[in-house]
Specification:
Layout (H helix, E strand, L loop, with lengths): L13 H6 L20 E5 L5 H19 L3 E4 L4 H10 L4 E3 L2 H11 L2 E7 L5 E9 L14 E4 L5 H13 L10 E4 L3 H9 L5 E6 L16 H4 E6 L3 E2 L2 E4 L5 H15 L2 H11 L3 E4 L6 H9 L4 H4 L4
Parallel strand pairs: 1-2, 1-3, 6-7, 6-8
Antiparallel strand pairs: 3-11, 4-11, 4-12, 5-8, 5-9, 5-10
Helix pairs in contact: 2-8, 2-9, 3-4, 4-10
Length: 309
Protein backbone atom coordinates (compact mmCIF):
# COMPACT_ATOMS: atom_id res chain seq x y z
CA UNK A 1 0.00 0.00 0.00
CA UNK A 2 1.20 3.77 -0.73
CA UNK A 3 3.89 3.90 0.90
CA UNK A 4 0.58 5.13 1.63
CA UNK A 5 -1.59 4.06 0.56
CA UNK A 6 0.97 2.96 -2.03
CA UNK A 7 -2.60 2.45 -2.61
CA UNK A 8 -3.62 2.72 -4.62
CA UNK A 9 -5.25 1.70 -7.46
CA UNK A 10 -12.62 -0.49 -12.19
CA UNK A 11 -14.62 -1.78 -15.39
CA UNK A 12 -17.31 0.78 -14.49
CA UNK A 13 -17.25 4.32 -13.26
CA UNK A 14 -17.82 4.39 -9.51
CA UNK A 15 -21.24 5.91 -9.92
CA UNK A 16 -22.24 3.03 -12.16
CA UNK A 17 -20.90 0.58 -9.61
CA UNK A 18 -22.97 2.22 -6.91
CA UNK A 19 -26.09 1.78 -8.96
CA UNK A 20 -25.32 -1.81 -9.83
CA UNK A 21 -26.43 -3.14 -6.47
CA UNK A 22 -24.55 -5.13 -3.91
CA UNK A 23 -25.86 -8.65 -4.27
CA UNK A 24 -23.40 -11.53 -4.38
CA UNK A 25 -23.32 -15.28 -4.33
CA UNK A 26 -21.01 -17.17 -2.03
CA UNK A 27 -19.08 -20.03 -3.52
CA UNK A 28 -19.84 -23.49 -2.17
CA UNK A 29 -17.28 -24.51 0.44
CA UNK A 30 -18.60 -27.52 2.31
CA UNK A 31 -16.09 -27.85 5.17
CA UNK A 32 -16.39 -25.58 8.20
CA UNK A 33 -14.77 -22.19 7.56
CA UNK A 34 -11.39 -21.75 9.23
CA UNK A 35 -10.49 -25.44 9.20
CA UNK A 36 -7.60 -27.10 7.37
CA UNK A 37 -10.01 -28.29 4.68
CA UNK A 38 -11.52 -24.83 4.26
CA UNK A 39 -9.05 -22.19 5.49
CA UNK A 40 -9.90 -18.52 5.58
CA UNK A 41 -8.77 -17.13 2.25
CA UNK A 42 -6.90 -13.89 2.85
CA UNK A 43 -5.82 -11.88 -0.20
CA UNK A 44 -3.21 -9.15 -0.27
CA UNK A 45 -3.39 -6.55 -3.04
CA UNK A 46 -0.34 -6.63 -5.32
CA UNK A 47 1.01 -3.18 -4.48
CA UNK A 48 4.44 -4.47 -3.43
CA UNK A 49 6.73 -7.35 -4.42
CA UNK A 50 4.56 -10.48 -4.51
CA UNK A 51 7.14 -12.83 -2.97
CA UNK A 52 7.70 -10.45 -0.06
CA UNK A 53 3.97 -10.06 0.47
CA UNK A 54 3.44 -13.83 0.53
CA UNK A 55 6.32 -14.34 2.98
CA UNK A 56 5.10 -11.58 5.29
CA UNK A 57 1.50 -12.74 4.97
CA UNK A 58 2.44 -16.31 5.83
CA UNK A 59 4.21 -15.15 8.99
CA UNK A 60 1.15 -13.16 9.98
CA UNK A 61 -1.11 -16.14 9.23
CA UNK A 62 0.92 -18.35 11.56
CA UNK A 63 0.53 -15.84 14.38
CA UNK A 64 -3.19 -15.49 13.67
CA UNK A 65 -3.65 -19.26 13.74
CA UNK A 66 -2.14 -19.40 17.23
CA UNK A 67 -4.28 -16.51 18.43
CA UNK A 68 -7.63 -17.46 16.83
CA UNK A 69 -7.45 -21.22 16.33
CA UNK A 70 -8.45 -20.70 12.69
CA UNK A 71 -6.55 -21.78 9.59
CA UNK A 72 -5.59 -19.23 6.93
CA UNK A 73 -4.41 -19.30 3.35
CA UNK A 74 -2.57 -16.25 1.98
CA UNK A 75 -2.72 -15.29 -1.68
CA UNK A 76 -1.61 -12.31 -3.75
CA UNK A 77 -3.89 -12.15 -6.81
CA UNK A 78 -2.61 -10.48 -9.95
CA UNK A 79 -4.69 -7.30 -9.68
CA UNK A 80 -7.06 -5.26 -7.56
CA UNK A 81 -9.85 -6.43 -9.84
CA UNK A 82 -8.99 -10.05 -9.08
CA UNK A 83 -9.19 -9.46 -5.33
CA UNK A 84 -12.51 -7.64 -5.56
CA UNK A 85 -14.23 -10.08 -7.91
CA UNK A 86 -13.00 -13.03 -5.82
CA UNK A 87 -14.53 -11.44 -2.72
CA UNK A 88 -17.74 -10.94 -4.67
CA UNK A 89 -17.72 -14.62 -5.67
CA UNK A 90 -17.01 -15.74 -2.10
CA UNK A 91 -13.66 -17.33 -2.96
CA UNK A 92 -11.72 -14.75 -0.94
CA UNK A 93 -12.88 -14.08 2.61
CA UNK A 94 -10.60 -11.24 3.69
CA UNK A 95 -9.10 -8.57 1.46
CA UNK A 96 -6.50 -5.94 2.33
CA UNK A 97 -7.95 -3.18 0.15
CA UNK A 98 -6.87 0.41 -0.28
CA UNK A 99 -9.57 3.12 -0.03
CA UNK A 100 -10.85 3.46 -3.60
CA UNK A 101 -10.86 -0.28 -4.38
CA UNK A 102 -12.66 -0.80 -1.05
CA UNK A 103 -15.56 1.57 -1.79
CA UNK A 104 -16.20 -0.08 -5.13
CA UNK A 105 -15.98 -3.55 -3.56
CA UNK A 106 -18.50 -2.48 -0.94
CA UNK A 107 -20.92 -0.85 -3.31
CA UNK A 108 -20.71 -3.62 -5.87
CA UNK A 109 -20.49 -6.72 -3.65
CA UNK A 110 -21.33 -5.56 -0.10
CA UNK A 111 -17.76 -6.13 1.07
CA UNK A 112 -17.42 -4.65 4.57
CA UNK A 113 -14.46 -2.85 6.11
CA UNK A 114 -13.68 -4.08 9.63
CA UNK A 115 -10.29 -2.50 10.37
CA UNK A 116 -8.30 0.50 9.21
CA UNK A 117 -4.52 0.49 9.30
CA UNK A 118 -2.38 2.84 11.37
CA UNK A 119 0.88 4.38 10.18
CA UNK A 120 2.83 7.29 11.62
CA UNK A 121 0.51 7.08 14.65
CA UNK A 122 -2.47 7.96 12.47
CA UNK A 123 -5.25 6.17 10.61
CA UNK A 124 -5.46 8.99 8.05
CA UNK A 125 -3.18 10.85 5.69
CA UNK A 126 -3.31 13.58 3.05
CA UNK A 127 -2.06 14.65 -0.33
CA UNK A 128 0.42 17.49 0.09
CA UNK A 129 1.33 19.93 -2.65
CA UNK A 130 4.90 21.12 -2.27
CA UNK A 131 6.94 23.89 -3.91
CA UNK A 132 10.42 25.28 -3.50
CA UNK A 133 10.75 28.00 -0.86
CA UNK A 134 12.54 30.34 -3.29
CA UNK A 135 9.81 30.48 -5.95
CA UNK A 136 7.31 32.87 -4.37
CA UNK A 137 4.67 30.15 -4.64
CA UNK A 138 2.75 30.17 -1.36
CA UNK A 139 -0.77 28.95 -2.17
CA UNK A 140 -2.66 26.87 -4.70
CA UNK A 141 -3.76 29.89 -6.77
CA UNK A 142 -0.10 30.75 -7.34
CA UNK A 143 0.27 27.58 -9.41
CA UNK A 144 -1.93 28.71 -12.28
CA UNK A 145 0.04 28.35 -15.50
CA UNK A 146 2.96 26.66 -13.74
CA UNK A 147 4.64 23.28 -14.30
CA UNK A 148 3.37 20.48 -12.05
CA UNK A 149 4.32 16.90 -11.18
CA UNK A 150 1.90 14.16 -10.13
CA UNK A 151 2.99 10.70 -9.02
CA UNK A 152 1.43 7.69 -10.72
CA UNK A 153 -1.72 8.62 -12.69
CA UNK A 154 -3.87 6.50 -10.37
CA UNK A 155 -2.07 7.18 -7.09
CA UNK A 156 -4.58 8.22 -4.41
CA UNK A 157 -2.41 10.92 -2.83
CA UNK A 158 -0.13 11.45 -5.82
CA UNK A 159 -2.84 12.21 -8.40
CA UNK A 160 -6.50 11.49 -7.57
CA UNK A 161 -6.85 13.56 -4.40
CA UNK A 162 -4.70 16.51 -5.57
CA UNK A 163 -6.79 16.72 -8.76
CA UNK A 164 -9.90 16.77 -6.59
CA UNK A 165 -8.34 19.50 -4.44
CA UNK A 166 -7.69 21.62 -7.53
CA UNK A 167 -11.21 20.99 -8.85
CA UNK A 168 -12.80 21.78 -5.46
CA UNK A 169 -10.83 25.04 -5.39
CA UNK A 170 -12.60 26.17 -8.55
CA UNK A 171 -10.05 25.20 -11.20
CA UNK A 172 -9.98 22.57 -13.93
CA UNK A 173 -6.98 20.32 -13.20
CA UNK A 174 -6.72 19.51 -16.92
CA UNK A 175 -6.24 23.20 -17.83
CA UNK A 176 -4.81 24.75 -14.68
CA UNK A 177 -1.11 24.06 -15.37
CA UNK A 178 1.06 24.95 -18.34
CA UNK A 179 2.77 21.57 -18.17
CA UNK A 180 2.09 18.33 -16.29
CA UNK A 181 4.36 15.34 -15.82
CA UNK A 182 3.70 12.01 -14.10
CA UNK A 183 6.91 11.24 -12.25
CA UNK A 184 5.71 7.86 -10.97
CA UNK A 185 6.93 7.49 -7.40
CA UNK A 186 6.52 10.11 -4.70
CA UNK A 187 10.27 10.48 -4.22
CA UNK A 188 10.63 11.33 -7.90
CA UNK A 189 8.05 14.09 -7.51
CA UNK A 190 10.07 15.53 -4.62
CA UNK A 191 13.26 15.45 -6.66
CA UNK A 192 11.55 17.07 -9.65
CA UNK A 193 10.44 19.97 -7.44
CA UNK A 194 13.81 20.23 -5.70
CA UNK A 195 15.71 20.23 -9.00
CA UNK A 196 13.39 22.86 -10.53
CA UNK A 197 12.13 20.55 -13.25
CA UNK A 198 8.64 21.59 -12.12
CA UNK A 199 7.31 24.38 -9.96
CA UNK A 200 5.30 22.15 -7.63
CA UNK A 201 4.18 18.57 -7.11
CA UNK A 202 1.83 16.24 -5.23
CA UNK A 203 3.08 13.78 -2.60
CA UNK A 204 1.67 11.84 0.34
CA UNK A 205 1.80 13.40 3.78
CA UNK A 206 1.13 12.28 7.32
CA UNK A 207 0.90 14.01 10.66
CA UNK A 208 4.65 14.04 11.27
CA UNK A 209 6.18 12.83 8.02
CA UNK A 210 5.79 13.09 4.28
CA UNK A 211 7.41 11.78 1.10
CA UNK A 212 10.29 14.26 1.28
CA UNK A 213 11.84 12.10 3.97
CA UNK A 214 12.37 9.38 1.36
CA UNK A 215 15.10 11.50 -0.27
CA UNK A 216 16.59 13.20 2.76
CA UNK A 217 19.80 11.17 2.59
CA UNK A 218 20.42 12.27 -0.97
CA UNK A 219 19.07 15.80 -0.41
CA UNK A 220 19.80 16.76 3.22
CA UNK A 221 18.32 20.26 2.82
CA UNK A 222 15.11 19.15 1.11
CA UNK A 223 12.95 20.07 4.11
CA UNK A 224 14.20 23.66 4.10
CA UNK A 225 14.39 24.09 0.32
CA UNK A 226 10.76 22.94 -0.14
CA UNK A 227 7.51 23.58 1.70
CA UNK A 228 3.90 22.42 1.80
CA UNK A 229 1.60 25.01 0.22
CA UNK A 230 -1.69 23.07 0.21
CA UNK A 231 -3.18 19.78 1.32
CA UNK A 232 -6.18 17.71 0.40
CA UNK A 233 -9.05 16.57 2.55
CA UNK A 234 -8.22 13.63 4.81
CA UNK A 235 -7.74 10.23 3.25
CA UNK A 236 -8.61 7.26 5.47
CA UNK A 237 -5.91 4.61 5.53
CA UNK A 238 -6.28 1.28 3.74
CA UNK A 239 -8.56 -1.44 5.00
CA UNK A 240 -8.92 -4.99 6.17
CA UNK A 241 -12.29 -5.97 4.70
CA UNK A 242 -14.45 -9.09 4.66
CA UNK A 243 -16.76 -10.58 2.06
CA UNK A 244 -20.52 -10.59 2.39
CA UNK A 245 -21.80 -13.63 4.26
CA UNK A 246 -18.71 -14.40 6.32
CA UNK A 247 -20.10 -15.57 9.68
CA UNK A 248 -20.02 -12.78 12.31
CA UNK A 249 -18.30 -15.03 14.86
CA UNK A 250 -15.49 -15.67 12.38
CA UNK A 251 -15.23 -11.97 11.57
CA UNK A 252 -14.96 -11.18 15.27
CA UNK A 253 -12.15 -13.68 15.73
CA UNK A 254 -10.24 -12.25 12.78
CA UNK A 255 -10.64 -8.67 14.01
CA UNK A 256 -9.69 -9.46 17.60
CA UNK A 257 -6.84 -11.65 16.39
CA UNK A 258 -5.29 -9.00 14.15
CA UNK A 259 -5.50 -6.34 16.85
CA UNK A 260 -3.95 -8.66 19.45
CA UNK A 261 -1.22 -9.92 17.14
CA UNK A 262 -0.27 -6.38 16.09
CA UNK A 263 0.43 -5.52 19.73
CA UNK A 264 2.92 -8.37 20.29
CA UNK A 265 6.62 -7.91 19.47
CA UNK A 266 6.61 -10.62 16.80
CA UNK A 267 3.29 -9.44 15.43
CA UNK A 268 4.41 -5.81 15.23
CA UNK A 269 7.23 -6.87 12.93
CA UNK A 270 4.94 -9.07 10.85
CA UNK A 271 2.38 -6.34 10.12
CA UNK A 272 5.07 -3.73 9.58
CA UNK A 273 6.86 -5.96 7.09
CA UNK A 274 3.56 -6.49 5.30
CA UNK A 275 2.64 -2.91 4.37
CA UNK A 276 4.50 -0.72 6.85
CA UNK A 277 1.57 -1.05 9.26
CA UNK A 278 1.91 -0.04 12.92
CA UNK A 279 -1.48 -1.28 14.07
CA UNK A 280 -5.22 -1.28 13.45
CA UNK A 281 -8.33 0.58 14.56
CA UNK A 282 -11.97 -0.52 14.14
CA UNK A 283 -13.60 0.91 11.01
CA UNK A 284 -17.02 1.17 9.39
CA UNK A 285 -18.15 1.82 5.85
CA UNK A 286 -19.24 5.41 6.53
CA UNK A 287 -15.60 6.26 7.28
CA UNK A 288 -15.01 6.00 3.52
CA UNK A 289 -17.83 8.26 2.34
CA UNK A 290 -15.32 11.00 1.52
CA UNK A 291 -13.48 8.52 -0.71
CA UNK A 292 -16.73 7.79 -2.55
CA UNK A 293 -17.20 11.49 -3.16
CA UNK A 294 -13.74 11.88 -4.63
CA UNK A 295 -13.97 8.68 -6.69
CA UNK A 296 -17.26 9.80 -8.22
CA UNK A 297 -15.95 13.29 -8.97
CA UNK A 298 -12.81 11.96 -10.62
CA UNK A 299 -14.62 9.12 -12.45
CA UNK A 300 -12.23 6.44 -11.23
CA UNK A 301 -12.55 3.07 -12.97
CA UNK A 302 -11.10 -0.29 -12.04
CA UNK A 303 -9.18 -0.68 -15.28
CA UNK A 304 -7.37 2.57 -14.48
CA UNK A 305 -6.25 1.25 -11.12
CA UNK A 306 -5.03 -2.00 -12.63
CA UNK A 307 -3.17 -0.42 -15.53
CA UNK A 308 0.49 -1.52 -15.80
CA UNK A 309 2.87 0.73 -13.91
Amino acid sequence: MSCRSRLTFFALVVATALAAGCGTKTASRSAAIGTADNPIKMAMVPSLDTQKLVASGDRLAQLLEKKTGLKYEITVPTSYTAVITAMGAGTVDVGWLSPIPYVIAHDRYNVQVVLRTVRDNSDRYWSFIIARTDTGINKLADLKGKRFAYGDPVSTSGAIYPKHLIRASGYDPEKFFSEVIYAGAHDRVVMAVYNKQVDAGAIYGGINTDAREKVIKALPDVMTKTKVIAKSIEIPNDTVSVRAGLPPAIVRKIVDGLIAVSKSPEGKKAVFDLYGIEGFVPAKDADYDSVRKVARAEKIRLEQIDKPK
